[in-house]
Amino acid sequence: MDLVIANAQVVDGSGAAGYPAHVTVRDGRIAQIHRDGPPPATTGESLDADGLTLAPGFIDMHAHTDLALLRDPEHTAKAAQGVTLEVIGQDGISYAPVTDTTLPTIRRAIAGWNGSGDDIDFDWRTVREYLDRLDRAHTDPHGGTGIAVNAAYLIPQGTLRMLALGWDDRDPTAAELDLMRAEITEAMHAGAVGMSSGLTYTPGMYAKDAELTELCRTVAAHGGYYCPHHRSYGAGALAAYEEMVALTREAGCPLHLAHATMNFGVNKGKAPDLLELLDRALADGADISLDTYPYTPGCTTLVAVLPSWASEGGPDATLARLRDDDTAERIRHHLEEIGSDGCHGVPMEWETIEISGVTDDANTPYVGRTVLETARANGETPWTTARRLLLDDRLGATILQHVGHEENVRTIMRHPVHTGGSDGILQGAKPHPRAYGTFPEYLGKYVRDEGVLSLAECVAHLTSRPAARLRLADRGLVREGYRADLVLFDADTVAAGSTYDDPRVYPTGIPYVLIDGRFVMRDGLRTDVIAGRTVRGAAYRP
């Protein structure tokens, strides 16, 4: 049945100024855009937008909802923001491809990101099986089957390395490298859009440039891109960015920098240095894009800040090292006096580490307090507090790292290759507010309130630019023939409701969201419609 969206202010995602129009949707696509005259007659439904801004649905280029999409048919945290497509499989660790041996370890390693998975039937092993599972995850009363919002998948390089080498810190053999390349080819044929890395997370961080370059060659051969969480966002950040630019250029692979920022005190005011590096590469023909979230704190797991040698061998080996007093003292020395590679080479500042979530309810008193605050309250050293939490919570605790700089955030989001990514973790009692607020925060704070970006430019950052990186020919713009993944918002009132104190609050000013021409949000409320599907990449072979 036709839908006519009348009297909308269309901001089409191209970066051009908005214009008034009526938009007809038919069979999940934009059928017509009427710039003149009254709204067209329809035998279907008509919605008077009454001046609301109509834009393409937002694309979250960095999401951690690999299990949330399976467990939650509503997924309102993202749908309410106007997100119609998420890119998952981030930071080099996810749940496909796996074996019966690697899956349990992966589940433990990223329980802080996605929960333990005890509520999930892990009935897949390959990337194709995982994507097919998403496509049949939920069914609505109207016959729709799939997931709450669309999803694209990145092959996780750390998961590949675990499959081929386990958790060993060594170079792969020729056979092991061939196995990883073969897995990439299979995954790209299954529909993956590229490959991610977490180069401050084990075991992915053990890969040297030569190994990563060879894997990127295979990704590029199948039309994908490389999305690294690179080796440092602190000390040595510029060198880490330069490393990624160099190896992807050697591999001939497009580069998308994950949550690109310059953090910690050593990088205050240094965003222009990063952009100068990228501009030189772009001028020389490099294919580069990046994503950011519009907040200063980062978010990860507490175990991630440990030196990499402490995590070699997997979670059980890490816990054994933490139990041993002598080894634990070595870990403390690296953290507090040297600066561990897990904490980006910067000596630990415990006052910046806020516990945001735990997997054991007995550890709930830690949540919302920094490690330093808790240590002082208990009359102990910060390392004693952190060590006890790591052991008691079996490495599941998540943290906010208050190490960012507002001027860096603003400078990077203005860059022409910038896109939006929430990096949102939905787990924990007090998650980062970006999980519920990234996209309205861009539109409300940084567009309307502070004018860092124009509305048309910001919408392009959140729609057509990510669609171009994903090589999606019919998404990211309000154009006739394009898929009707759309969001209607009030540019005068749109705002993030989530805060650091109360992070699970939905945004305001986004009353309507459509996926495949069907309302998943109506009048600001989640409908019962399931309209999302996996979006398969350029090399997909059914």
UniProtKB/TrEMBL annotation:
CDD domains: D-aminoacylase. It holds the Pfam family Amidohydro_3. It comes from the Bacteria. Gene3D superfamilies: D-aminoacylase. Domain 3, Metal-dependent hydrolases, Urease, subunit C, domain 1. Residues 47-520 form the Amidohydrolase domain. Signal peptide: none annotated. This is N-acyl-D-amino acid deacylase. It comes from Streptomyces uncialis.
